[in-house]
Design goal:
The complex is a heterodimer of chains A (338) and B (288). Chain A has 338 residues and is mostly helical. Helix content of chain A is 77%, strand content 1%. Chain A is globular, with a radius of gyration of 24 Å. Chain B has 288 residues and is mainly α. Chain B is built from 12 helices and no strands. Chain B has helices at residues 8-41, 43-46, 77-112, 116-130, 133-144, 148-158, 161-174, 178-185, 190-198, 203-226, 237-246, 255-284. Classes of the chains: A mainly alpha (338), B mainly alpha (288). Chains A and B meet through helix 2, helix 7, helix 8, helix 12 and helix 13 of A and helix 1, helix 4, helix 5, helix 10 and helix 11 of B.
């Protein structure tokens, strides 16, 4: 009991230390870069600033409307005031207004975010478990036929264009065999309730999640495999063998346990990739998430929406990284600063 | 404990097989890349039709005249795909070259001057590595406009960070080698030391990252074109798939000849370079 108490307080101590100020500063810097990039890009590009910044069709507006939008977006102010104003908006959670959709952008993002979180979350779990298990097995049986074919297979999967994978999945499972719905997140205009509703959502999510999981697995697999191979060479593994620990116990209790820590960092980075990857997957499946919103905004030249979504993606990636920083010392005590 | 996996003969056999694998995969990759380069260079002679000319009725299924049928405006799909190899390989190779130039410069400088310049440069590298990659690519491509040059630039300026990091760590260890210290103690200017002693020794590593970058750039070009952000005049495998998606070809039996071939080729091209990169990396730093 007492020992557990001590360990737990040690853990909290490590946690607090792990929130390294330099890391936090780095993440802050990334936010500044992202916001500044967002601010400068449309202002540096050739073309009508009103079209690029407000995302409106300038030709369709009469002078009065134009003046109103200029005033609303604040384009009549000096550049540094615009920049401060832009920051002010972001810090207060105001991402501006989509003149094309005629809605505040924050609302549009809140509508879409849950769907993206659903499919990226699920696919992250699937690819993490698959990658870790296959990577561990592969390294454990290193050099065998099974390991080498798995490795070659994973290198091939890494070259799969995700959108093409999605299109083929739709052609085969939705069109050819009619098993799954080919687009959207729910059946439109259906008043399903209870289990039928849940199944409706699940059946729509199966293919996007499958596609995202398949593309996400090789990265985890490779990291786990190499990390395992490195751990297998450590002295304490030989010690474990020497003291007569069973193979299974060595694999799960000693090797896999120690090898998994670097995978956490990769998973955090993967999350960023998976999040960004939804732009493509959600476009293929017409899935109403944040990624699809980016595609629609680009296609419809609704630049402010595209920019806001980019900031949300950035925020998500940073949070994933921060979570990994916090989790790491819990999983790998060696990195806890004493 | 005499577990089967640690039987002496089995281990030796495994080691032999292990050391052969990178070579086999590398050769396979080289063969794929060679075949695709051949197709790209000889495209005008290999393609049965002009890919930009309406030579038949739209939406034709495969026949002896049009092996892969025709698209929504009556272009021959086979010819389109043969010519598509040019855009994919061109963008892949040139974007990777841009990335390599930036990556090597930053990596060498950051490694040779690790204190102030190095840490500033690496902070920039970290920022690029953290930013959500694909959304940033799309934002840049959307603002810059659709052209082949812009596609190359956008991809090139976003993928140099990884090569820079790899090269920097190599340079960090190189700069404390005896011959570098000797050159410096004899008063050799930094420029000379870097060009004479440092850069040549990063060549192998740089080649590995270059080939890996080509593999990634091919996939990115395809993704951009698929999202409708590629050059509208150039036909690439990604844009063929963009039209297949826009015209709903993947919802009809046409997916077998309109959707499958270009996607397989994108995968093959990216895989070819990835296999070469894998075999190079194993040779430089055997991790197996």
């Amino acid at each position: 009991m007492g020992g557990g108490e001590v360990r737990r307080s040690g853990r909290v101590e490590g946690l607090r230390r792990q929130i390294d100020l330099r890391r936090v500063a780095q993440y802050g810097f990334v936010v500044v870069v992202a916001v500044t990039l967002n601010f400068l890009l449309p202002r540096l590009m050739p073309g009508n600033p009103l079209a690029l910044i407000a995302g409106v069709d300038v030709g369709l507006l009469d002078p009065d409307q134009r003046a109103e939008i200029v005033a609303r977006v604040g384009l009549d102010a000096p550049l540094w005031q615009q920049y401060l104003r832009y920051w002010g908006g972001i810090l207060t959670g105001d991402f501006g207004y989509s003149f094309r959709a005629n809605r505040p952008i924050v609302e549009m993002i809140w509508d879409r975010l849950p769907w993206t979180l659903l499919i990226t979350g699920l696919s992250l779990v699937v690819s993490a478990v698959t990658g870790v298990v296959l990577g561990a097995l592969s390294a454990w049986r290193r050099g065998t036929k099974g390991d080498l074919s798995l490795l070659s297979g994973m290198i091939s999967v890494e070259s799969l264009p995700s959108f093409w994978l999605g299109m083929v999945l739709i052609s085969v499972f939705a069109v050819q065999w009619g098993l799954l719905p080919s687009f959207g997140a729910v059946t439109p205009a259906s008043d399903l309730v209870g289990w039928a509703h849940t199944w409706d959502i699940v059946s729509h999510a199966i293919m996007p999640v499958t596609a995202l999981s398949i593309v996400g697995t090789p990265g985890v697999y490779m990291t786990m495999r190499y990390s395992m191979l490195e751990t297998l060479g450590e002295d304490y593994i030989r010690t474990a063998r020497a003291k007569g620990a069973g193979e299974r116990r060595v694999l799960f209790g000693h090797v896999a346990r120690n090898a998994i820590a670097p995978v956490i960092t990769v998973l955090a980075i993967r999350l960023g990739f998976a999040f960004g990857g939804t732009v493509i997957i959600e476009t293929v499946f017409s899935y109403p998430g944040l990624g699809r919103l980016v595609f629609e905004a680009v296609a419809g030249r609704d630049y402010p929406v595209m920019q806001a979504a980019f900031l949300v993606f950035t925020g998500a990636v940073l949070m994933a990284n921060l979570a990994a920083d916090l989790l790491y010392p819990l999983i790998d005590p060696r990195t806890r600063t004493s | 404990m005499t577990a089967a996996g640690f039987d002496d003969r089995a281990v030796r056999r495994a080691i032999r097989r292990r050391s052969r694998l990178p070579t086999v995969l590398g050769l396979a990759g080289a063969a794929i890349v060679g075949a695709l380069l051949f197709t790209a260079v000889l495209a005008p002679w290999l393609a049965p039709y002009d890919p930009k000319e309406r030579i038949a009725r739209p939406f034709l299924p495969p026949s002896s005249e049009h092996l892969l049928g025709t698209n929504d405006v009556g272009h021959d799909l086979l010819s389109e795909i043969i010519f598509g190899s040019r855009v994919s390989l061109l963008v892949g190779l040139v974007a990777a070259t841009v990335a390599l130039l930036i990556g090597t410069t930053v990596g060498v400088l950051a490694g040779y001057y690790p204190k102030r310049l190095g840490s500033t440069l690496m902070r920039g590298v970290d920022v690029i590595l953290i930013l959500p990659f694909l959304p940033l690519l799309i934002v840049l491509a959307a603002y810059l406009g659709r052209s082949l040059l812009n596609t190359i630039l956008v991809i090139g300026v976003l993928i140099w960070a990884e090569p820079a990091r790899i090269i920097r760590s190599q340079v960090l260890s190189l700069r404390s080698r005896e011959y570098v210290l000797a050159a410096r103690s004899m008063g050799a200017p930094d420029r000379w030391t870097i060009l004479r002693h440092i850069v040549p020794r990063t060549a192998l590593l740089a080649t590995g990252s270059f080939v890996r970058a080509v593999s990634g750039a091919i996939l990115l070009e395809a993704a951009l074109s698929f999202l409708g952000l590629g050059d509208p005049i150039q036909k690439s495998w990604g844009s063929t798939l963009y039209w297949a998606q826009t015209r709903g070809a993947f919802l009809t039996p046409a997916w077998k000849w309109w959707v499958l071939p270009p996607g397989l080729l994108i995968m093959l091209a990216s895989l070819g370079f990835a296999l070469i990169a894998f075999s190079l990396e194993e040779r430089i730093n055997p991790r197996l």
